[in-house]
Amino acid sequence: MSFQKIGITGRKQNPLATGTAIAAIEILIAKKADFEIDSGFLNVSKAMKAQKALMGRSRLLSKFNSDIVLSFGGDGTLLEVFRELKKKIPVMGINCGSRGYLQAFRHYDAGLAVEAAFAGNFTVEKRARVLARIDGKNAGEALNEVLVVPEKAGRLLRFSLKISNSEREQAGDGLIVATPTGSTGHALSAGGPVVKGNASVFVVVSLNPIDWSHRPLIINDHEKVMAFGFEKTRAEAIIDGQKRIRIKSRIELEKGSEVLFAVPK
Questions:
Q1: Positive/negative CA dihedral, 41, 45, 49, 54
Q2: Contacts by 77-80 with C-beta closer than 8 Å and gap 24+?
Q3: Which H/E stretch holds residue 21?
Q4: Which terminus in the chain has less CB density within 10 A, N or C?
Q5: What is the pLDDT of residues 196-234, one digit of tens each?
Q6: In angstroms, rounded to a whole number, what is the distance separating the alpha carbons of residues 33 and 53?
Q7: Cβ–Cβ under 8 Å, residues 5 and 36
Q8: What is d(CA 72, CA 265) in angstroms, rounded to the nearest whole number?
Q9: Are 19 and 136 in contact (CB under 8 A)?
Q10: pLDDT of residue 1
Q11: Alpha-carbon distance 97 to 41, whole Å?
């Protein structure tokens, strides 16, 4: 079945992303498809000649009402898109960046992505996020990972780690709690495993621990993780590499809301 409306968004500062998106929009116009464009991404009125076909289609990403969204950029762009979207809409990534672990298509296959979106030729995969509470307050959700590190690099971080009813003392460079989606990011670089994106687990990785018996763990995503005892060591949480928050005493991590990945069949 075909979908009623397709959303277009991406990374404004990336010329490859904007150029590829314009080409995709031209395909949608030729198909007489209904679509909307993220006003923070693309000023198509200056880039395209088909002015009448573009009238009334520009709006904020947070106001999107699409059936599927095409994201043009890299993995960081995709994380930002999920953070900005207010509705639970499937997102299909078209890689215009470097690695593109989270992307469904490369930029040179953007035409195939448009065809898949237009024809509904994809499956929807649910991915969990990690919800962080810092000192009792909601600090946001991470689709990739939450890092707990010293505020000053190179300092030894001592704290207690509790997972469900199991508790232990930690000392090292910090801690990573990653989703399956984020298992190919910082957690992998720190020695963690690669996990299938829709698995119902989280990955817990100690960063350069003094006690090397503290190996990476895979836990059920219904388990809660708490790190506490930061009163003597200034620490901060980094959420998806983009948001930094000081931890005064403790951080609690648990399963948050889900996002929808559009995966080609």
A1: positive
A2: 77/10, 77/11, 77/14, 77/17, 78/102, 78/103, 79/143, 79/144, 79/240, 79/242, 80/242
A3: helix 15-30
A4: N
A5: 888 999 999 999 999 888 899 999 999 999 999 998 888
A6: 10
A7: yes
A8: 20
A9: no
A10: 45
A11: 15
Q: What is the pTM of this model?
A: 0.87
DSSP β-bridge partners for residue 51:
none
CA 89 vs. chain centroid, Å, equals 14
Torsion of CA 27, 124, 11, 102, to 10 degrees: -120
Phi and psi at 37, nearest 5°, equal: -125, 135
- Burial code (b: 16+ CB inside 10 Å, e: under 16) for 182-203 equals bbbbbbbebebbebebebebbb
What the block records as the tokens of 54 is: 């573009």
- pLDDT tens across 147-182, in order? 999 998 888 999 999 999 899 999 999 999 999 999
* Catalytic residue annotation: 75
Reading the block at residue 23, the tokens are 């080409």
Nearest to 15 by CA among 61, 58, 57, 73: 73
How far is the C-alpha of 89 from the C-alpha of 126, rounded, in Å?
Answer: 11
Q: Report the alpha-carbon distance of residue 180 to residue 50 in Å, rounded.
A: 42
Rg of the chain over CA atoms, in angstroms?
A: 20
Q: What is the dihedral of CA 30, 34, 40, 46, to 10 degrees?
A: 30
What number of other Cβ atoms are within 10 A of residue 179's Cβ? 29
